[in-house]
Amino acid sequence: MNAFEQQRLILGCMRLNKLSQKEADRYLNHVIDKGITYFDHSDVYADGECERIFGRFLKNNPGVRDKIIIQDKTCIISGKMYDASYEHIMSAVDKQLKDLATDHMDVLLLHRPDALLEPEEVNRAFNELKKSGKVLNFGVSNFYSGQIELIQRELDEKLKFNQIQFGPAKAELVTDSMMTNMIQKNGSNRYSETLDYCRLNEMRMQSWSPLQWGNIEGCFFNNPDYKELCAKLTEIGDKYGVDKAAIAVAFNLRHPANMQVILGTMNEKHFDQMIEALNIKLSRDEWYQIMLSAGYPLP
Ligand SMILES: NC(=O)c1ccc[n+]([C@@H]2O[C@H](COP(=O)([O-])OP(=O)(O)OC[C@H]3O[C@@H](n4cnc5c(N)ncnc54)[C@H](OP(=O)(O)O)[C@@H]3O)[C@@H](O)[C@H]2O)c1
To answer: Span 1-165: which CATH code?
Structure first.
């Protein structure tokens, strides 16, 4: 495992356009000073504006590029299609590198599974990108096990990452495995196979939006449906002397898959609270109490 792959927390840059350039420069420097040096992007976030803000940050802070990991994603053409064709991947990466003001990205992920994806085309694109030094590592996002296997067998490059949503209020990725053979809600086991597959194949799982209750509906802290979960996180947080947000992140970190967690906050205070999770190892009892308080049943 490379040094950067060992990082447990990643800063997601999807909301970077909420900040002015000056605020973004300050915030990104703060994040790096706190030891988080892995950044996640996509060309779909604010239609490239988040990448451009990050690129200007790099220009304003010479010397930073060599200390950090840049991961980017492509394939979503907002509202129109998913495009994992050779032509799209090649032209997207050139634009992303220009917007990010760098000559290479450390990791490139296919953002979502394109129904028309041709594995041979992805292989050609990945090989050329690797050979030219524009992209060093590859992976996918929101792919399930069968989709990964289907393309991996055609690829010369190993897919090293899969980025999937997971958090206390959106925990099917792990809770479904306990519902195998059950008739209750979630009994179909849609997700867990993916996690098991990634673990079996040494693909690093990255969990996106750990604080969301839907996909993009909002932070569950503000949702009255998750009152019980918030009370439980607060109760456990009080025990460790940290905010409930740190316990939410610790919930993800506690899973034995050793997954990375992508934080989306653009607020320095929230960020500082959440990274406290790195110092916490929840007990088995606490982990299950959180799961049950989020409404996931134990069959
Ligand atoms: N692969 C994919 O399909 C996919 C999809 C979505 C996202 N992602 C990645 O995942 C990253 C994280 O997503 P996300 O932004 O939805 O993550 P998140 O960390 O679950 O949510 C962050 C949101 O929660 C808010 N929040 C409210 N109270 C908070 C508190 N006490 N502490 C911390 N945050 C609080 C934040 O607001 P403040 O800024 O005010 O703190 C922010 O709006 C994205 O940046 C992106 O890189 C990937």
So the answer is: 3.20.20.100
